[in-house]
Write a structure and sequence with these properties.
Elements lengths: L5 H12 L2 H4 L9 E6 L5 H16 L4 E3 L3 H8 L17 H9 L6 H18 L2 E4 L3 H4 L6 E7 L2 H12 L3 H23 L11 E4 L5 H21 L2
Parallel strand pairs: 1-3, 1-4, 2-3, 4-5
Helix pairs in contact: 3-10, 4-6, 8-9
Length: about 240
Amino acid sequence: MRESDPILNIASAFAYSQSHEHLDKLHPADRTSIVLSRQAGTREEAICEKLTHLLIEKTHAPWNLYDRNLIDTVLKDHQLPVDLAKYIPEDKGNEVENLLQEIVGLHPSSWTLFEKTSETIFRLAQRGHVILVGRAANIICAGLPQVFSVRLIGSYKVRVEYIQNSLKLSYEDARAYVDHLDGARKGYAQKYFNEDIDNPLLYHITIHTDRFTDDYIASLIADGVVAFQKYLISKK
C-alpha cells in the first residue's frame, strides 16, 4: 500500500492520536466511543457489525468492535492466562464453584477480574473509536463526555423467537436462554454497581428493535454518533 493511500493516512493519523501524550490534547469529539447495552435476542451482533462499517464510512476513521473479543483484550492487558476467560462472564456462572476455586487459589477473585475488566473497558473508551458491548460499559464510562450510550430492547416474544430460530432451540429452551441472559446481565449491573440496566436515564438513546431492520438501526446509531460529535464540538 502506498504512503499516499488515504486509508493508510487515516490509520497512521489514528495510531498517532492514540499515543498517551497526544490523547489528552484531543477534543472529546475526536475520540468518540459507543457503549451498547442490550436485552437478549435484540440482534446486536449483526447490528454492531453493520454499525462498525457505517461509522468508518461516516467518520473517516477506523472503529473497533469489542463484544466477545473483549475478554481477550482484558487478559492481554493484564497479562493473565488465557484459561481465565471462562471466569469473566457477563452472565453468572456457577458462583459456588467459582468461590471454592477462588479460596483454593485456582484463579483470582471475581472482584479482581471485574476490576481488571472495568479498567480495560475504561481505557478503550478513553482512546475512542470503539464500540463496547455489554459488561455494564455504559455505567463504567458514564463520566466520559465522549461516550455515546445506546440500549437495544425488544418485545419478549420476538426476542425469544429470534433466539429459537438463530440457535435452533425449542421455544421453551429459547425462553430459558433469554430469561437467563436478561437476568444475568441485570444481576451483573446490580451486583457491581447497584444500578438497574433497564433505567432509561442511563442511555442517550433506546431503540425498540422489533420495529426496524438491522440496517436501519445501524444507520440510526451512526447518525446519532455524528450528531453527538457535532454537539460536543459546539460545546468548545
